[in-house]
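Complex 197.
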Amino acid sequence: MKITKAELVISAVSRNQYPGEGLPEIAFAGRSNVGKSSLINCLLNRKNLARTSSQPGKTRTINFYRINDSFFMVDLPGYGFAKVSKSERLKWGKIMDEYLNTRTTLEGILQLVDMRHRPTELDVMMYGWIKEAGFPGIVIASKADKVSRGKWNSHLRDIINTLGMEGEDIIIPFSAVKREGKEQLWDIIKHFVGNDE
Ligand code: GTP
Ligand code: MG
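Predicted structure with guanosine-5'-triphosphate bound:
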């Protein structure tokens, strides 16, 4: 997709701050540090639109990016960062709950899991929630550049089994560093936001 415009509209923590619901939306979920913000930058060909960090817990708000004035990409706050306090964790839960349960224009949630490791319990919970809410299971195996090609299949199979992916569910190896998996991902996103360019 040709990106003519990409702008951060708002970093929200509650519903009254969300942008109006005139446009379709897809969201990226996943553990802290898994590469959500890097993926958004990679897809949009921007170095630093979504702020990234090697320190986990960088994105703590729901960041709404409006693309080509035609849809929203949403960077969700990461979970599973060991060093956060209990009150921070509760805050995360509240922010996510409110978003996931009320955002009527949300067309799909793409979940990132680190391709190097077996998904965590929280990853399994997140995936379960996505499926239960009626969204298709689409998993992005991130940081694929860190796994040698010969091991891709066994790592992907491990993720598929641990999350309990089935039938129509899709897993895509992705690397923001090598810019791999980008085309496949765009095809899926276009499908969700109804843009056939
Ligand atoms: P939070 O905002 O904390 O939830 O993290 P995030 O999921 O947005 O992760 P972010 O994009 O900030 O990336 C975390 C770290 O992983 C950074 O140091 C990135 O450079 C690195 N990283 C992201 N994507 C890739 C990738 O495809 N390959 C490699 N090797 N490193 C990556
Ligand atoms: Mg982030």
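Residues 36-37, 52, 58-59, 75 surround magnesium ion (ligand 2) (CB under 6 Å).
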